[in-house]
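DATA SHEET
Item: assembly model
Revision: 1
Owner: S.N.
Input lines:
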Amino acid sequence: MLLPLVLALVVIALVISSETFARSNYRQLGVSSGVVLSFWGISGFLSLYFAGIGSYQSYTDRNAKVSTFLCTLATTRHQIFAAKTIAAVVYILIVLILLAGAYVILLMILPSRPVLLNPSGLLGRMIFTAFWAHLAGYGLGLLLGWNQGRIIPTFGPLLLSIVILCMILIKGFSLSAGVVLMLAAAAALGRAWQKFSTMPLQ
Amino acid sequence: MNDMVVKIEDLYKYFDGRCVLNGVNLSVPRGCIYGLLGRNGTGKTTIIRILLGLEPATRGATELLGAESNRLTARQRGKIGYVAEGHHLIQNYKVGKLAQLCKNLANQWDQKFFDHLMSTFRLPMDRKIKKLSAGMRAQLNLALAMAINPELLIMDDPTLGLDTIARRQFLELAIDLIQKEGRTILFCSHILSDVERIADRIGILRAGKILVDCSLEELKRRIKKLRFIFADKAPSQLHLNEIINQQSSGREMILTVANWNQQKQAFMETFGPASCSEIALSLEDIFIEC
């Protein structure tokens, strides 16, 4: 189910980017701009998706008392949180690997492939930045989901995704953007872990 | 060797400035069935939640199986069975899937015993938890808690929602469990006849404090309800220590008193009662008097 979704996203993004590329001002920048733009759009959607997953997990956990039940079995809160995070990391990696694979396959068809697959490692930087963007989205989503009301858990991820996207737009898919997002992910997950370890489980 | 399976020292808990537990001290020795009693809102569930590390204490220390409650390892948690009030299981799971999850996470799992309980309770493995009745959820929760062969079984109002037959089955199971060497049960219940049937030690919680903590026999021995008939009018005021309840009507006086002894008896005899008889007290009577 995930693979067709990713492929569909890539096709849509490429169509949009080729339309964008067709415009004269983008043509000067080269085909890689279209690729970057489409990847930026997909990253935004996926950041929102992972922030939504984190928010939904916390919200349903609090309401359905899943962690409360698990904590009465032979598990600790740290193990529960570690399991959640590892599952999220694996999920993000699978999505990104599929996404990268789909990009490589589809761009092989385009005449501009040397631009994308050149030694400067554009695709690698994009994947690196996107990974930390998605993980930061997930961590912040986890934090938002613990709010009592419904508004913050529902609309918070959208706002966060916009912030993350703006940051990537300003900094570009670069190592520095990746490092900033890595720090954001570490801070969000650290705070979520601290909160989950000490809060009362109703 | 410290043989206290549950240990609570000077436990305080405040919720939004309201004191729920006001310096609770409690110890449950290994092999004991401890019944914790108290009216609604006296803090029984809070004590259990703090013991299990689900709720932080405001002050004080709690230990389970020799380890601090908030530092219990997964292995130590695996030795504790818990039947929660309201039976919060994972609602979207089917019974079979939940049992499999518990089995996978357990230190040890007695499949034969679990299957026996499932057939005794007639629980369907393919039904979702949210589609089960409250009684069935209670039975499932109990079966899951028992299948791990727990060293300590903690139950918060476990028979709530069970019919008479299921309650009887449940009590028999609890007795079966305790007969295994070294097993301990801590439970609270509003059904005092159940507590009376299986508990060998009682704690009564009132106003955030443990008012009574002794064996059931000792409790019954210590608290006496006496009917005095006097030749004239019964005295309206008695300067006697540890009176729990006193009712006078005409020549009759009914007195509930703690730690009844020869000195107290001698004191009462100075009023020259025509007769004195003891009224038998059940645990429920004692609970109401206290």
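QC remark: The CA atoms of residues 52 and 157 of chain A lie 6 Å apart.
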